[in-house]
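stuck on this one:
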Amino acid sequence: MRRRIAGVLVILGLAVGLTGAAFSGRVGAQAPDVLVVGRGFEVLSLDPHKGGSDLNIFDTLVARDADWQHNPGLALSWQTLDPTTWELKLRRGVRFHNGEPFNAHVVKFSFERGLDPKTKWARAGLLRLIKAITIVDEYTVRFATQRPWPQFVPTMAMFGWVVPPRYLEKNGDDALLRRPVGTGPYRFVRWVKDDRLELEANDDYWGGRPKIRRVVVRTIPNNATRLAELLSGSVHLIELIPPELYGPIQRSPRTRLVQARSAGVLMILLNLNNIAPNRPLADRRVRLALNHAVDRRALIASIMHNVGAPVATFCTEVMRGCDMSIAPFPYDVERARTLLREAGYPDGFDMTISTTSGTYPGDRDLTLAVADQLSAVGVRARPVVTEFGVFLRALVERKLPSDAAFARYTDFLGYAGDIGFRAYHPQGYGSQWFPGNREFQQLLETAEVIFDEARLRDLLRRAQLLFRQEAPGMPLITAPYVYGLHRNLEWRPRPDLTLPLGTAYWRQ
């Protein structure tokens, strides 16, 4: 890998050019007017209800900052009128990039469009609790919900997109796919598929014009090429970079690493769905042994280049309700061997672990390292690399054939129960992993409807302790959300994997 990166650096050091005359990416003595981002994947859609989620072109009702605090966005304020009714006061004077006004009618249209089955929005299920939307006046709207919904505000921050009804009525429902029009800090200029997305600052943005005039988001799938372009100055920001690229970025005088507070957990899911009683993983002592056999700090040092922290359950410190007093499983090989002997497996056993390769930073290498550590206690774990689409489909359909699976879960709501519910509750896509513990399920279900903070934390703590006791999975470490930046670029990433650039600026 190092040799390949070095070769690309030599070639690009001689040959790489600017990103185009209109969008030059070089950083000179004066603060430039452009920011060039190198992304490892193609922009598939620019319509927020059809697979897109660009916080630069569009806005959500609630704003969120890098510390995961919720602030006024297109909604200036919000309150509960009763446990199942939320009222929002909307910002006045906001217009879409085409001049269309924003108001309560826009909000009602936007959410009804997103929830319409004909739209086929993959995230619509996250808004399934919305029962009705009522316009009180031009700048007041009420949401009636199916049940109490304490996570309404963070859901509005992540998925509360608004779109222009008149524009869509005039140009067709697919218009945002071709030329998106939002209320965000940047206006759409051009999208060249498989190449780049170009944006320009919205001078009339309600939050103030962005300090950087133009943005180019380039598609650069190859990690080594993205690194080389960052080091050469042709690209100013690359996201979610793999651990092996940290060193070159840290050593270069032109660049620096920036890490978001992690809202993600890397874990080994254990397949407990319809498991035969005589299978090793059906025994809690075996599951505890697997957890004690893993040296999480060694994984961080050897694979993740000292980025990350051990995880005790299914949450991280950034999530509301995560009890950080619960310690991760201690690395204890002798304890693991004793538990295996007590369970009737003194010579260990065979198992398979599904994993992806290159989908998440360190996915394959971490799985191989965990398998190697398990071999020290006699467990013969065989990693099975699976294409991500196949892996995800099998996971969602609860048909993954392996005994275990490496996965990354990201919390989008800033709430400790989010990953617990999605990964380990039957109503999430995780009943393959912890199907039989009704007490655990009820704790998470009750936490979903509780507004009282003290009671919420108590419920989530009990769920985390039960998870620790039963060990339905192997929580490993926090997921690394690491970005490479030009040294003069000031920007703070958010824990939710979004890429809002409206607050970025060049330091003189």
